[in-house]
Specification:
The structure is a single chain. This protein is mostly helical and 81 residues long. It is built from three helices and no strands. The longest helix is centred in the N-terminal third of the chain and has 26 residues.
């Protein structure tokens, strides 16, 4: 049951970034998004992934690696526009 809750939380967290990623890539506009927030979220995601590895927590590792990728995708639009 604990793993189910972890994977459900993982799924919800990961899909929460999809609308912003899609909007950023379609419009190529990220003016309203804070660079410092993106950097801090990236650092936090990597740190959570490392913590997940230390705890051997699949949901935590998977979620934060995917979220890190989404954030990098948004930051790429911010830098490449």
């Amino acid at each position: 049951m604990i793993d189910f809750v972890g994977y459900l939380a993982s799924f919800l967290t990961v899909i929460s970034f999809i609308p912003q990623v899609v909007k950023s890539w379609r419009t190529r506009k990220t003016e309203g998004l804070s660079l410092s927030t993106g950097i801090l979220l990236s650092a936090g995601s990597i740190t959570w992934a490392i913590y997940g590895v230390l705890l051997d927590s699949g949901p935590m590792i998977i979620t934060n690696i995917i979220v890190f990728g989404w954030i990098l995708s948004i930051l790429a639009v911010k830098f490449l526009r």
